[in-house]
Design goal:
Blueprint lengths: L1 H15 L19 E8 L3 E11 L6 E10 L5 E7 L4 H7 L5 E9 L3 E9 L9 E8 L5 E7 L4 E11 L5 E9 L5 E8 L5 E7 L4 E9 L5 E8 L5 E8 L8
Antiparallel strand pairs: 1-2, 2-3, 3-4, 5-6, 6-7, 7-8, 9-10, 10-11, 11-12, 13-14, 14-15
Length: 252
């Protein structure tokens, strides 16, 4: 009897862990209008994690709100947990008719058990309603929030991150685009954070029209590559690939 019970427990464990990871599924998750997932990650034996946003109407007046969204799924595609964040800026609501926009754009695994998500949060700015700041959220593998932080860049009416990766030298690298509040320049940027997510350096790459960073990678020698888009005069867009040194300086 003991032997039979032991075999049953072992078989149940084996089925629930490694084999479950090979299950294929096709799921649709009905939420609200314009909900989306932007980044998918896996923590071994914990399941899948999706980061994105959820857009919905707040009330009968038609007030719109977009919240940052994270979801955890098991290996069968069943929802385990759902997390949402909204800044609910009352000044934004009073001046512009909606409480702000929050989204998660990308994320990475930290120390094999936590997730660091990056996105945008929106606060009131008397100059521009599109004042997006960087939103950082650290989750554990149960999708519990460990901390949240924002990075504001004075002089920019908007800074939008599209990619984050762990850096070989410690900390993290973020890339995206930013808008200058004075001259309207729309430029690609790279930012280095230390292990506590404090800004170490922040560089932008001048383009007289428009440029963007969509993806980042580090070379073996520590230099940084980023790919993105570059808008030419006349509206034509071209792909770009840049390589800068480990401090984000000068194409190499």
């Amino acid at each position: 009897m003991k032997k039979q019970l032991f075999i049953t427990i072992v078989l149940c464990y084996l089925y629930s862990m490694p084999f479950a990871q090979n299950v294929q599924f096709d799921r649709y998750y009905t939420m609200s209008t314009w909900s989306m997932g932007r980044k998918t990650l896996e923590i071994t034996n914990k399941g899948y994690y999706v980061m994105g946003s959820n857009n919905y109407w707040v009330d009968s007046t038609g007030t719109e709100n977009r919240t940052a969204l994270a979801m955890r799924f098991n290996y069968y595609g069943d929802t385990i947990k759902r997390w949402e964040y909204s800044g609910n800026d009352s000044l934004m609501l009073a001046h512009y008719g909606f409480p702000g926009e929050d989204q998660l754009m990308h994320g990475c695994i930290v120390n094999d058990s936590n997730l660091l998500a990056v996105g945008i949060t929106q606060i009131y700015n008397p100059v521009s309603m599109y004042d997006h700041d960087i939103l950082l959220v650290m989750f554990n593998s149960d999708l519990d929030t460990l901390w949240t932080n924002t990075i504001n860049c004075p002089g920019d009416s908007s800074i939008v991150p599209y990619s984050i990766i762990p850096s070989q030298s410690g900390g993290y690298l973020i890339g995206g685009h930013q808008n200058n509040a004075v001259n309207g320049a729309f430029t690609a940027f790279l930012m280095k954070l230390d292990a506590n997510c404090n800004v170490v350096w922040h560089h932008w790459y001048i383009n007289p029209f428009q440029s963007n960073v969509w993806s980042i990678a580090e070379a073996i020698d520590g230099s940084i590559l980023y790919s993105g888009s570059h808008l030419q005069l006349g509206g034509d867009g071209d792909p770009i690939l840049f390589k800068v040194d480990s401090n984000g300086n000068n194409p190499v």
